[in-house]
User: Fold this.
Amino acid sequence: MTPLLSDRPPSGGWTVDDLAALPEDGVRRELIDGVLNVQPSRTDIHQIIAMRVMVALEETCPDDLHVTQAVEARFSKQLSLIPDGLVTTDEAARRGGAHFHPHEIRLAVEIVSPFSETLDRVLKPVLYANAGIPFYWLIESDGGLTVHAYELADGAYRPSGSFTETIELDQPWRIRIPMARLRPRQL
Assistant:
């Protein structure tokens, strides 16, 4: 039986199987310890930034990696997140499917929105680091455009740069992206 969204969660909490059984309706749903997190649609500026970042990464991405956006990252039966952008192994991308596992993800990208500030700045970096995802980018668009890059070290993310003019990194591959390419006209 297909679960229906109601004011009562399934006994024992939501699972990724429950989410998979829901109709495809374009609503962004994530699971955190079996608790369903439903987020409103992303803003136009958010979507433009996500598109431009992923296109810029795709242009220089090595053949053994794959760039995509807004695909489920499945951590466990009751923990499922949807990063705004992902760089995965090419092998994982070739297997197809609607989700990736943390060991297949090399870079997770989150763009802070008014309704995702705590998730993107606090909770998701901890969950991504605990899962062993080697790189994390946090993109801020309030008051201009800034990319904060982090690298996993000793089980936690450490800053590897904050960029307002040009993203210049050697990991997960040599990346050089002028921020003007990413900035929506409205910013």
